[in-house]
Amino acid sequence: MLQPATTMLCVQSLAKKALVMVAFVALSVCGLCGASASEPEIVLHLPMSTAGPNTMDPVRGSSVYDNRACNMVFETLLEYEYLERPYKLKPCLLAEMPTVTDDGKRFRFRLKKGVRFHDDPCFPGGKGREMVADDVFYSFKRMADKRNSPKGWWLLQDTIVGFDQWRTDQNSAEEKRQAFIQQKKSAGEADYESAAPVGFDYDAPIEGMRKINDYEFEILLKQPFFRFTYTLAMFQTSVIAREAAEYYGKTISRHPIGTGPFTLRHEDWESGAFMSLKRNPDYREDYYPADPGLNEDGSEPYPGYSEDKQLGFYEDAGKRLPLADRVEVSFFVTNQPMWLKFRNQEIDYTTVPAETFEQAFIKRTQKLRQSYLDEGIRFTPVPLLDFIYNGFNMEDPDFGGYEDEKKYLRQAISLAYNYQETNQAFYNNLNIIYDGAIPPGLEGHPENHRAPKNYRGPRLSEARKLLAKAGHPGGKGLPTLVHYTSKQPQNVAMAEMAKRNLKKIGINMDVRAVDFSTLTDLQREKRAPFFGLAWGSDYPDAENNLQLFYGPFKSPGSNNFNYDRPEYNEMYERARVMAPSPERTKLYEQMRDMLIEDVPFIGSMARTRFYLTHDRLRNFKPVEVFANWPKYLTIKEN
Amino acid sequence: MWAFTIRKLIYNIPVYLATVMIMMMLLRVQDPVAGKLSKNPTQEEYDATKKELGLDKPFLQQYGLVLYEVATWRFHRNMWTEPGVTVGDKLRTAVPRSLALTIPALMLTTVISIVIAMISAFNRGRWLDRTLVFFAVLGMSISFLVYIIFGQYFGAFLLPRWLGTDVFAIYGYESPLKDWRNWPYFMLLPVLISVIVSMGYDTRFYRAVMVDETQREYITTARAKGASQTKIMFVHMLRNAMIPIVTRVMITLPFMVTGSILLEKFFGIPGMGYVLLNAIDNSDFPVIEGFTAIFAGLFILSIIATDILYAVFDPRVRLQ
Fold first, then answer.
1. ipTM exceeding 0.85, yes/no
2. Chain B closest-CA separation from residue A282 CA (Å)
3. Hey, is the C-beta of B46 within 8 angstroms of any chain A C-beta?
4. Is residue B9 part of a domain?
5. CATH number of A386-606
6. What is the dihedral of CA A64, A70, A74, A76, to 10 degrees?
7. Considering Cα of B24, then B27, then B29, then B31, what sign does the dihedral take?
8. CA distance B67 to chain A (A)
9. pLDDT (tens digit, 9 = 90+) per residue, B124-136?
10. What pLDDT, in 10s, does the model give residues A170-213?
């Protein structure tokens, strides 16, 4: 009896051991195979102050929200270094920076190999294929196709040899084709498609675009425009697959298929509510920036390096990107819910709405309150590349013109303006007031924001003297200055404040609040003598702001001021083909000072956006010049 | 009844056509094209955009297109704010979300208000009536926005901190079709706010109706016959008060589809109110036109239906 019992015990014991062994082996195998599967998913919760991007078709996009959303899914040839300042471009889809020859006109590109488009039914078998040179050309050509309602054509206009003519030819061919089809349709003919002439032909060659092989190509510019390199980092030039554009047709805006770090399925985007992006499992090899370390002489490799290091921005150096598995974007059209969600730890960061500024900050010192610091909330001020101004129409018979009297008149008006008061009343004194049209942080911006000679107000006695010099002592004989502004309550209040200040020197101003499209119309038709507007730089080069005063770009172009001085135009033409250099900086400064003297605008101001971040969100260095940063972010709970 | 309905429908066709036309004319007072252009627009881009939006066509042709969409019930034009999404698609997704918010709110408000109004009317002049009227007036006097901001702050932000668990969402929306619990989480707070706001107005209105009814002779007769208080209130009085109640509810019905612009905006519910507000902000004509055309139709139909229901509830009413 004992023996069997013992045997039974032994058998039981052996079975248990075997089970334990099997379980151990199974767990070990699982652990080896699926180490990552057992790790918690890293999910970013990011806010966006909008009802959502209008489109995720790069060529149709124009807003900052389109940019941010597209940057998670699409990629450009170049991108900005994430941490380094001042802003510096680096290869993104390219294997190396383009080589430039022929005095800066010929760009030779080499693409990274093995970059794949997201998997999607638009590809055979649903598997995304490798991106090649033809895709880059195709994406650029889409910007020329009027059927796409491209918003970014101006970026490539008058830039690449033969491209403008190609665009005209192709669009005209398409128009002829459509007219033919329409005619045959009306006539009731059935087989008109095959008989129709060729329309927009994406395969037609362009003189300035030459494919060398699948990974190499050349682009020839008309002139050595330096801005072209910045264009290659702008989301409108993102690379898109032809299959996707053709498969989805007009609904491509809702089916983003790129090569980017995250993928977005159509059903994971709910306009007005949320967008849920997932890590692209086939994302190319891309790594978090390596720690450059201090220079041999102990100096920083770039300004702000030590602070970045201290904030732990290099803890993930060398890790494969993207760091997060999912990005949950919430759209907010009002500020309170965004603020409450941040306070409730439901989103990882927020910008600080004006109405909650004093809740979070001590207004006098602009320091974050202790209670927020105790919660581990981090605060980062981000100066924006803003040019907020009040512009004159230089073709206006009363307030425009280049004669000395007209110049004195505008200088007097400028001296009566009080941007400091505006800043205090409407921006919690957070804006930067500066002279000229070049925002802080860019080459050519005046030292301490103040140009050597300026007409920054309030300097009322000087203003009165200049007004008298202009032939209008005490404002005598001057018609009412009509000021157009968009009808947001704050803009109207700011204009009313200016009206009060101008009254002090005897100038009457009539404030007309109109909606934005009317304001744009008035400018396009040169009917607004004086108007309040703002310009956000598209890329970190003052050329983008200085082109606003280039004569040939007069309304309906970007030069709303209709400023047209041959000397300025000549300087701009020289500057736009120059690479950054002390000579170019000097030229920028001359142009800046010429504008300050002529006063085609009164300004300027740049906003500072305040970002608050929860401690768990790591590697977040807020920036508004570029938007591909979600791939660098991660969550680490303490 | 059929003859009455058909006649009413025919009479209202010109009203409907004029409503749609006036709405379209008002929309076109300001040119929306400038707001759709890129940063550095050219005249060529302006013309191309105008053509793409269909605004280069004669007004009557544009008007005809909208009517054609209504007649065929195919709102196939692309939204201007979301290229690639048709107005029909948008309506199909947005309207049910609004209904998920507005129908429970209407039902709760109506039931609670009627009960309070009846209690108030039966205690007319006493402290209970005065207290209820005081709260009704108080409720009416406070702005909707105040309820939303406080509701969001206390209900969705502070309450979970006190309770240690999430009760209501501060903001956002996920479909209850995915998980039924999404409805109470995302919708219940807006519904409660809507009920609280509307209750003041409705209670005052229904109380006036009920007070009128309590003074009628049939109530005295019912009392004399020994009918219970409950029976008098819920059987005799309620039936006789149905006409104003039905009128009020029926007039409200088309607004169920519009949703609540404020609630949807502040709680991030992408229903019709939110979509419409966004469309107005961005001059998205196809959405505004499609929606207004539907809403105008519903409004006219609800007025006709109200007339018909009068006859159902009150045998004295004849449809002629």
1. no
2. 27
3. yes
4. no
5. 3.10.105.10
6. -10
7. negative
8. 22
9. 889 999 999 999 8
10. 999 999 998 888 888 888 877 777 778 899 999 999 999 999 99
